[in-house]
Write a structure and sequence with these properties.
By secondary structure, the protein is α+β, with helices and mostly antiparallel strands. It has two helices and four strands, in the order βαββαβ. Strands 2-3-1-4 form a four-stranded antiparallel β-sheet, covered by helices on one side. β2 (29-34) and β3 form a beta hairpin. It is globular and about 30 Å long. The protein starts with a strand and ends with a strand. The mean pLDDT is 97.
Length: 68
Amino acid sequence: MPKHEFSVDMTCEGCADAVARVLNKLGGVEFNIDLPSKKVSIDSEHSVDTLLATLNKTGKTVSYVGPK
């Protein structure tokens, strides 16, 4: 499964929970949230565009860092 890294402007545990919530809703993903470095690593067959759109639902600033 391709692994992608995203930068998400998370400032607290609540932000990380919001990210986990939208990703779990999407399904078909395994992810790791690194709150201190504001990075989210996602293993998924979904396209980068789909993952970006999903992460954007949190209302946080999101950018694609690249493949991991």
